[in-house]
Amino acid sequence: MSYADIRSKKATASHLIKPGDRKLSTDEVENRILTVSGVDIIPTKGNNECGVITFTEIKDAFYFAGKVLTEMCREFLNDEDAFEELNAGKVRIRIYRTKSKNGNTYVAFEYVTDTAESTDGFVAADVSDLPFKTE
User: Fold this and answer.
1) Which pairing describes strands 105-111 and 92-99: parallel, antiparallel, or unpaired?
2) Largest Cα–Cα distance of the chain, in whole Å?
3) CB under 8 A, 24+ apart: contacts of 75-80
4) What is the pLDDT along the chain (135 residues), one digit of tens a residue?
């Protein structure tokens, strides 16, 4: 068994990740409007957790979420009505990078509505309650 096979086997801790699926990079999903088709949370080293997201538009692939998107996954998994909307294909997001006051880059997201997409291409993120500045 190769190292890639071992890593692939460990990654199947989520029902969303199937053998042969590829891991998406932030570059591949950034600033695209994507429909979320599945969310899950998997344990990582220590007592941490990581969100896993799949998208309707990108088949046979998954995205490991950072802190902000992992929290989004947790909210969907804990809210039955929201989870039903996700399963119905009604949850669309745009993932983007932003910077903190200290200059560190973070990955964030915003929900996209039909109205906003038809007029602007994407929704302006509501960043008023974030603990850091965005550009």
Assistant:
1) antiparallel
2) 51
3) 76/39, 77/39, 77/40, 77/41
4) 444 554 555 544 788 888 889 999 999 999 999 999 999 998 887 778 899 999 999 999 999 998 899 999 999 999 999 999 999 999 999 999 998 888 889 899 999 976 555 555 444 455 455 444 444
CA-closest candidate to residue 37, choices 90, 95, 79: 90
Q: Which helix (H) or strand (E) holds 41?
A: strand 33-43
For 79, residues 6+ apart whose C-beta sits below 8 A from its C-beta are: none
Q: Which residues does 27 contact at the CB level (< 8 Å), separation at least 6?
A: none
Structure token pair of residue 125: 């993120």
